[in-house]
Amino acid sequence: MSLSQEPAPPSPPAVPSDPDATKSARSSAACERWSAAELRRLTALIWPGQLLVVAGIIAANSQPQIAQHFHTTQIAWFSLSFTLATIVATPFAVRLGDMYGKRRVMIVLAAAGLVGDLVTVLSPNYPVMVLGRAIGGLYGPVAVLVLAAVRDLFPPRKVAMALGTVAGSVGVLSMLAPLLSGWLLDAFGWRGALWFLVASTVVAILALLAVPETPRRAVAGRLDRAGALLLGGGLALVVFAVGQGRDWGWASAGVLASLLAGLTALAVFVTVELRVSAPILDLRMLGRRSPATVLLGSSVPQAAFFASQAILIFLALFPPIPNVSDGLGWSTTRTAVIGIPAGLLTFAAGIGVGKAVRTTSPRSVWYVGLGILAGGLALAAFYHHDATQIVLTGLVMGLGGGILMAGQQAMIVSVVSAEEQAAANGLSSLLTQVFLALTNQALYSVLAADSTVLDGTAFYHDSAFTHAYLTMAAVVVLGLLISLAIPRLARPADSAAHDLRTPAAPLPSA
């Protein structure tokens, strides 16, 4: 499939001068103000959209207690089962959201996630817990649909700001979640932390009930089940193979068979999707240079940003042991407090991007974010030995990460139509999850290369943390190189306004 160069989205036509210019300016300024209904709508979307981040942090911090309670060495499946279910469910969710309305699909997925949360917290043994986590993974696509719904629920000039606020709110939530998880685990144990996730999912469902339904952008006809199963199954097998590579060995029959089966399924998926009239994901979108380069170029560095959070967890929480471990030996609470400034800056950066892209190309903002994040990771590689250094380097990384998360959404709005928005967000989520699995594998391999095993636990030396941060910086630079192929982009407001002026294509008949 060749990438064709298409012209940049048209800019809005020039408005001729008229004698009521002052009145028009006042009207335009009034449009910039947010109504109470819009603020309620925005607030209602933030928690369902970012609950996945909060749940991930709390679940990750609960794993040590869960592993000891059930005496299992397979704790990796606590997270992997959730991820695999999300990957399989995402293509179905995106298509169904276009067919029946995103709000309706999000509520159904959140209800399924609630069932999974209940099975997890009430599980009598570890296999049942893994099953519950897999069911809970059905909540995952809600984050994708929330971002796609923003374009449907807000006026064109407010789309970028709304996306920046929703995406950037991860900074505040990722700042508060470690504090909350530390308190819950210390006071109530792992079941107390998981009961909080149950309550959080209930709140998310109530918030979604307050969100208006979105337009249907596809006819409620035949669902491309074959395409969805091939895509979800293929990606799940690839991620599974990557996740088991370190334990089973990369040359083991199980890893090679899973990897080969996954790649074969993905190859068949591409063939099928290019032939069906209503594909589960429109791969023809990747035949255009702008969406292809934006989606690929943005998924790689975001994976590095998310994966790099694990470095600080090992660095801060592992104890200092002479000649064995160069950890700092901090408590979970102190580590969370140290991360507060970076979390606040990440949130502020997301809002700042929403304002910046009103007058600046999102591509330029994206390049700035990549440079800042790569620089922050490089600095952290050499300056991570005390609280002051970690706060300062965290501020740089938090700023870069906030720009990236909000900038990605601004670029997607600039290169796809409203009808393609959900598919683009779904494809972006899938790519980020796959690259995250690969990046995590690289990260753990780098850490393990300079570690000492004591009583069955691997402890890391200072050089391991240095090399891990440099590896993540290199992945961000790789994303920058891919992003250099992104053509000139229109401002998100111009693209959204163009959607309003362009008549929607008729839906195909069932």
UniProtKB/TrEMBL annotation:
Residues 36-491 form the Major facilitator superfamily (MFS) profile domain. Residues 7-16 have a biased composition (Pro residues). Keywords: Antibiotic resistance, Membrane, Transmembrane, Transmembrane helix. Pfam families: MFS_1 (PF07690). It is a multi-pass membrane protein. It is found in: Cell membrane. Residues 1-27 are annotated as: Disordered. SUPFAM superfamilies: MFS general substrate transporter (SSF103473). This is MFS transporter. It comes from Streptomyces justiciae.
